[in-house]
């Protein structure tokens, strides 16, 4: 299953990137794809929520495609968590956005109209 997250630049340009997740063979989680601190925080929140719900401890490599584009913000959290939950099937493409908390609740979906207008 492929998960895509919309991104809005400071100039209101809309783009999207794919979240790719594989098991990490290192003893730590790995994050790649030109990400900022808020997006890293979203990764950590999604991982903690996933691990607490599933009682799993494996380490992951989380990559965001389109590495030439700097990515940041909180609204990828729901997409990251969903990708962790449904990482098995490869036959669907999903576009998802939203911020999550440590309990897995969706808190906020920022710039929803702008993201929706792109599609």
Automatic annotation (TrEMBL):
Q: What is this protein called?
A: Lon protease (S16) C-terminal proteolytic domain-containing protein
Keywords from the named record: Hydrolase, Protease
Tell me the Gene Ontology biological-process terms attached to this UniProt entry: proteolysis
Q: Could you tell me which residue ranges the Lon proteolytic domain spans?
A: 55-116
Against Pfam families, the record matches this protein to: Lon_C
What GO MF terms are annotated?
Answer: ATP-dependent peptidase activity; serine-type endopeptidase activity
Q: Which residues form a coiled coil?
A: none
């Amino acid at each position: 299953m492929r998960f895509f997250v919309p991104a809005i630049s400071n100039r209101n340009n809309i783009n999207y990137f794919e979240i790719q997740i594989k098991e990490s063979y290192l003893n730590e989680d790995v994050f790649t794809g030109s990400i900022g601190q808020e997006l890293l925080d979203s990764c950590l929140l999604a991982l903690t929520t996933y691990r607490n719900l599933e009682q799993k401890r494996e380490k992951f490599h989380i990559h965001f495609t389109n590495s030439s584009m700097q990515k940041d913000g909180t609204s990828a959290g729901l997409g990251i968590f969903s990708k962790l939950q449904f990482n098995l099937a490869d036959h669907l493409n999903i576009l998802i956005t939203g911020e999550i908390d440590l309990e897995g609740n969706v808190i906020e979906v920022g710039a929803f109209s702008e993201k929706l207008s792109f599609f």
